[in-house]
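Record Methylamine dehydrogenase (amicyanin), 194 aa.
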Amino acid sequence: MTRVTETRNDMERNGFDRLTERLARYLAGRSSRRGALARLGGWAASVPLFPLLPVWRGDARAADAPAAPSAAPSPFAAKAQAKDDTKCDYWRYCAIDGNLCTTCGGGVHSCPPGTHPSPTSWIGTCFNPQDRRSYLIAYRDCCGQDACNEQNCLGTDGDLPTYRPQANNDIIWCFGTGSLLYNCSTAAIVGTAE
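=>
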């Protein structure tokens, strides 16, 4: 009677059940609970690192527009000059907001004596009329003394609202320097935008 029952049970099993059983036995024979927990722990530990991966933060409008390397991409770029870095229409100042360090005793990329550069900056993309290329510019505030008020400029190319701080020029970026006194802003080239 037991042989008849065993045969009937074998007949009732279909191919899918046999395949599933073989796969389960194969996995059970080649893995352990500790190994599975170690892999699960590795994944759980790496998930918080995903926000640290680099993210392209370009303007969506710039991605939709076709790039024309020889045409000025904005009204500021159309009238920008590359000779006098003490004027507001100097090509690097397309997204600056504040006093120019070049008129306060500093340089385009250096703070005046007695001030300290902020550890953070906002980023702009400016068009150089001399070589007809666009560059990434890091605008960094110089802090530690009162504003020199020599030449105050406002460039709004690519300026975004405050909830997008990496491209907002209205924030005083002096936090982290030991003094929140704003003096002037620099405009250092970070790289090409192409």
